[in-house]
């Protein structure tokens, strides 16, 4: 068995931008592409239903790149093979403390001191890790 269906029907999903943004779900003839049945649902409803249990967070690599992580229920990573943009931590810091961002965020010395303390703590953690023997081939026990 080849695993492929020779069904004359195929399901489809399309996002439409006509009028109110929506998704069209339906079936069409596989050979002629003629639509046989269709249901249109507002995009907001579909997107809320699909993403209500997702969480977007970040992780940092040992080299200091920050990468987004999309996780579903039970912390299952969604789209682990997706191409995410990795941003070096120093670029994120530079962006955060730019004059324009500080103005827009209405940030002052208190916020900058908190950032400095957190970065100093992070440097301490890296320094501790560097003092430990590192064997990339052996998992910690």
Task: Explain how this protein is built.
There is one protein chain. With 141 residues, this protein is of the alpha+beta class. It has three domains: 9-51, no CATH class; 54-86, no CATH class; 97-133, no CATH class. It is 33% helix and 28% strand. The chain contains four helices and six strands; from the N terminus they run E-E-E-H-E-E-E-H-H-H. The protein has helices at 43-51, 89-96, 99-104, 109-131; strands at 9-16, 22-29, 35-42, 55-60, 65-71, 87-88. A hairpin with a 4-residue loop joins strand 4 (55-60) and strand 5 (65-71).
Low-confidence stretches: none
How many discrete structural domains? 3
Number of strands: 6
- The CA-CA distance between the termini, in Å, is 45 Å
Radius of gyration: 24 Å
Number of helices: 4
* Beta-strand proportion: 25-35%
Backbone structural class: alpha+beta
Within the largest sheet, what's the order of strands? Answer: 1-2-3
Question: Helix fraction?
Answer: 25-40%
Largest sheet: 3 strands, antiparallel
Mean pLDDT: 86
Order of helices and strands: EEEHEEEHHH
């Amino acid at each position: 068995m080849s695993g492929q269906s020779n069904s004359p029907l195929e399901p489809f999903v399309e996002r439409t931008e006509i009028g109110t943004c929506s998704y069209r779900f339906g079936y069409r003839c596989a050979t002629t592409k003629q639509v046989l049945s269709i249901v249109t649902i507002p995009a907001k409803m579909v997107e809320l239903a699909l993403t209500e249990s997702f969480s977007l967070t970040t992780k940092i690599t040992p080299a200091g790149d920050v990468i987004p992580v999309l996780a579903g229920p039970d912390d299952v990573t969604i789209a682990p093979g997706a191409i995410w943009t990795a941003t070096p931590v120093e670029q994120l810091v530079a962006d955060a403390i730019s004059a324009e961002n500080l103005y827009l965020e209405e940030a002052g010395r208190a916020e900058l001191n908190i950032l400095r303390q957190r970065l100093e703590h992070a440097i301490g953690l890296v320094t501790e890790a560097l003092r430990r023997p590192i064997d990339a081939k052996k998992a910690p026990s």
